[in-house]
Write a structure and sequence with these properties.
Blueprint (H helix, E strand, L loop, with lengths): L2 E5 L4 H12 L3 E6 L6 H4 L3 E5 L9 H6 L2 E4 L11 H21 L7 E7 L10 E2 L9 H14 L7 E7 L1 E3 L3 H11 L12 E2 L1 E3 H13 L5 E5 L5 E2 H12 L9 H8 L1 H6 L4 E2 L2 H6 L8 H9 L2
Parallel strand pairs: 1-2, 1-4, 2-3, 4-5, 5-7, 6-13, 7-11, 8-10
Antiparallel strand pairs: 9-12
Helix pairs in contact: 1-7, 4-5, 8-12
Length: 301
């Protein structure tokens, strides 16, 4: 069975992917900054490495020895963006990816799935966004563009590369848990005018798409990891309020978001009407194609 290396394996998505591939019999090596990982005791085929992937080190040997590399590492963007924190957001993604690619052996049959985000498109109003769209402007767009460039360099070594442009991942954790807390405190509602498009994907679809790409050996290129049914932020807030039994009538004005959250707030007001064009062309069958079906699964309502 093939060996899989996962950077960021202690995160919300990383844990789920590690469990998925372990359950299918793969040998999984996970890496992150946590001292320990709960899977170390639970799974014989799981190996945990505690290391800072922005720095070169012995951990890179595991990259060279792996058949499949899934690069998820990156500092959480939901934090006030000081100059220092913005540099950490950048370095955690670009330096980690650079170190992973430098460790890949030229000529060896390997596959790299490396993360990016829908934020690469910038603020696109009502434009329908497929993978051929050029990067937009802004800090997140610039970070994603550089992030992808580092990952795509692996192609020069003969490696198959899939770039995964994540929308907001919905599930029992991550960003949705932060939104849910606000609604339960009766302070939930649309951001700004709420007309901006909100790119999203159910975490189970995200897992299955990665499994689909791993097992479809010819899958390479750029992929929007978003649900096939775009939705505006106002509609998203209403749907979330409905399943939580809370009103979604307290919109956060744009000026307030920008004042409190700074540059992060401005990025949250951007509009990205993204569809997963390349995944649909490959014939991936979405389990949760609509927000309603996703919320029904997550909340049981």
């Amino acid at each position: 069975m093939e060996k899989i290396f996962i950077s960021g394996a202690s995160g919300f998505i990383g844990k789920k992917l590690a469990y998925l591939f372990l359950s299918k019999g793969y040998k999984v090596t996970g890496i992150g900054t946590c001292a320990t990982h709960p899977f170390s005791e639970a799974f014989e085929k799981f190996e945990w490495i505690s290391s800072d992937t922005t720095l070169k080190g012995k951990w890179q040997d595991k990259v060279a020895q792996s058949d499949i590399i899934i690069n998820l590492a990156g500092r959480n963007i939901f934090h006030y963006w000081t100059k220092k924190y913005k540099q950490a957001i950048y370095d955690s993604r670009i330096l980690t990816t650079r170190n992973i690619v430098s460790a890949i052996q030229k000529g060896k049959t390997q596959t790299l799935l490396t993360t990016s985000a829908a934020g690469i498109y910038g603020d696109c109003k009502d434009d329908l966004l497929i993978e051929e769209r050029l990067p937009g402007k802004g800090f997140l767009a610039d970070v994603c563009a550089d992030w992808e460039k580092e990952g795509l360099k692996a192609k020069k070594k003969g490696v198959k590369v899939a770039v995964m442009r994540f929308g907001v991942v919905l599930g029992d954790g991550g960003a949705l848990s932060l939104m849910t807390k606000a609604f339960k405190l009766f302070v939930g509602g649309p951001l700004g005018g709420g007309r901006q498009w909100f790119p999203w994907i159910h975490v189970k679809d995200l897992e299955k798409v990665i499994e689909f790409l791993v097992e479809n050996k010819q899958s390479q290129g750029i992929f929007n990891f978003t649900g096939p049914t775009p939705i505006r932020q106002k509609q998203f807030a209403k749907a979330l309020g409905r399943v939580l039994g809370r009103p979604a009538v307290m919109p956060a004005p744009s000026f307030m978001i920008k004042t409190i959250m700074g540059e992060l707030g401005s990025s949250l007001l951007q509009s990205q009407r993204v569809i997963p064009g390349n995944l649909l062309d490959l014939g991936y069958p979405f389990i949760f194609p609509t927000l309603q079906s996703s919320f029904k699964d997550i909340f049981g309502k």
